[in-house]
Amino acid sequence: AQTVTQSQPEMSVQEAETVTLSCTYDTSESDYYLFWYKQPPSRQMILVIRQEAYKQQNATENRFSVNFQKAAKSFSLKISDSQLGDAAMYFCAYRNLNSASNTGKLIFGQGTTLQVKP
Amino acid sequence: DTGVSQNPRHKITKRGQNVTFRCDPISEHNRLYWYRQTLGQGPEFLTYFQNEAQLEKSRLLSDRFSAERPKGSFSTLEIQRTEQGDSAMYLCASSLMNSNEQFFGPGTRLTVL
């Protein structure tokens, strides 16, 4: 069974600084996607960034980038130039691409609450 | 608003009562998912629909839980004989068949007294 682990329950960053959120996962599959989702307080979850496992190049979306280390099964999220609006709970998620069980369901980590200090 | 909608947003019920939640996915999204999220935790998969067919159910979905998606449009999640352990946020998400992005609704927060 696949698992996702986020070992940092809480993180804080000064506005305009950079912060890195950690995520590790366990799988025996070779084809999968990894995601970071953001869940602001009392608001719905939105996708921040995604990474296909077959791609060696790390994904980047504006101020958000990932460090994908497939062999180490590590998938960290870097937020540059942090803004007050980045304050939220961040979830790392895994999706298996094995055709036999490709329902697309997501397996989430426990989440990291990010506080941004002005 | 053309996003995923869920109703009600909040539900308080007494132990032993039945509750039903509704999810309206984004139009033409043929995949629909239900997740459960307890306080301070990540969402856990409950069940998956492809159009009107329920193709996967988690072991978390006990026999008190039932989900339907008639005509492949909206979906309902019913919990019978609610228990205090059912208190959680119930999230619905939808996606297109060939997309890896799921769009989430705002959730229904259930409190069982």
Elements of chain B, N to C (H/E): EEEEEEEEEEE
Q: Can you tell me the residue ranges of chain B where pLDDT is under 50 for at least 5 consecutive residues?
A: none
Strand content of chain B: over 45%
> Please, what is the average pLDDT of chain B?
94
- Portion of residues within helices of chain B: under 10%
Percent helix of chain A, as a range, is under 10%
**Beta-strand residue percentage of chain A:** over 45%
What overall geometry of chain B do the principal axes of the alpha carbons give?
globular
Stretches of chain A where pLDDT falls below 50 for ≥5 residues? none
Gyration radius of chain A, in Å: 14 Å
How does this model look, in words?
The complex is a heterodimer of chains A (118) and B (113). Chain A is mostly beta strands. In chain A, 0% of the residues lie in helices and 51% in strands. Chain A has strands spanning 3-5, 10-14, 19-21, 24-26, 32-39, 46-52, 60-61, 64-69, 74-79, 88-96, 107-108, 112-117. In chain A, a hairpin with a 2-residue loop joins strand 7 (60-61) and strand 8. The mean pLDDT of chain A is 94. Chain B is mostly beta strands and 113 residues long. Chain B is 0% helix and 50% strand. Chain B contains no helices and eleven strands. Chain B has strands at 5-7, 10-13, 19-24, 31-37, 44-50, 53-57, 65-68, 75-79, 88-95, 103-104, 108-112. In chain B, strands 2, 4, 5, 6, 9, 10 and 11 form a seven-stranded mixed sheet that branches. In chain B, strands 1-3-8-7 form a four-stranded antiparallel sheet, with no helix packed on it. In chain B, 34% of the residues are buried. The model of chain B has no long low-confidence stretch (mean pLDDT 94). Chain A binds chain B through residues 4, 6, 9, 33, 37, 43-47, 50, 91, 93, 95, 103-111, and chain B through 3-4, 31, 33, 35, 40-45, 48, 50, 55-56, 91, 95, 100-102, 104-107.
